[in-house]
Specification:
Blueprint: H1 2-10, E1 13-15, E2 28-30, H2 33-49, H3 55-64, H4 83-87, E3 99-103, H5 111-120, E4 126-134, E5 137-146, H6 149-159, E6 181-184, H7 186-192, H8 202-207
Antiparallel strand pairs: 1-2, 3-5, 3-6, 4-5
Length: 210
């Protein structure tokens, strides 16, 4: 019964030959390296303690496994090796490109800080600011949606390459000369498909699969 439970919990097949004496009995383990290693560790624990006491708790913890984390990832966060090749010709986008993606924001920057800064540089035509977070903490990235394309162009020209420290009061450990990276949102262009500035389904192009 204990061998069966151990096998079920670890995913390792445990074969105990029945035609050998107790002193010569050899156990055969079949499974992935991880499953075999877990099984050996638990068997050693049994041999050290002389009983299965406590092993059930270990197996129960293993069965629970790590907690699952659900997180929304946007296209602009992905590594897109083909983007550099496509960016030059599509830099200014089309008249309906009104969404920017910003990287390199300081951790202390909030939506209101970014909104206020945009207004101070003359790009006040802001429809929405979406700061990306993980477990409540800023990822240092944000989407900004404007009502007009010319406002998005102005904001990009003023923010791209600007010091991140201009957006929020930084702590001493954050006082670095990091700079913002600003581009038109590829997420928005994904939605447009062939009607985007690329004139094609750009997901495959940017990921290098087409």
């Amino acid at each position: 019964s204990s061998i069966h439970n151990l096998s079920q919990a670890t995913g390792c097949r445990i074969i105990v030959p029945s035609n050998s004496t107790d002193s010569e009995r050899r156990v055969q383990l079949i499974g992935s390296q991880e499953a075999v290693d877990r099984t050996i560790a638990l068997i050693r624990r049994f041999l050290e303690k002389g009983s299965w006491d406590g092993v059930d708790e270990v197996l129960a913890d293993d069965e629970r496994g790590p907690s699952l984390v659900c997180e929304r990832i946007y296209v602009d966060e992905l590594d897109m090796p083909k983007r550099a090749e496509l960016w030059q010709a599509s830099e200014d986008g089309l008249h309906d490109d009104v969404e920017l993606f910003i990287r390199g924001l300081p951790a202390a920057c909030r939506e209101r800080d970014l909104w206020s800064h945009l207004c101070s540089i003359g790009a006040s035509d802001v429809a929405e600011v979406l700061l990306l977070r993980r477990a409540g903490r800023s990822k240092g990235m944000a989407y900004v949606i404007f009502h007009r394309h010319d406002s998005a162009l102005l904001a990009r020209s003023k923010l791209d390459g600007a010091l991140a420290s201009s957006l929020a009061q930084l702590s001493k450990e954050d006082m670095l000369d990091s700079r913002l990276q600003v581009s038109f949102s590829e997420s928005e262009r994904c939605v447009k498909g062939r009607h985007s500035v690329y004139g094609s389904d750009m997901i495959g192009l940017l990921l290098g699969s087409k």
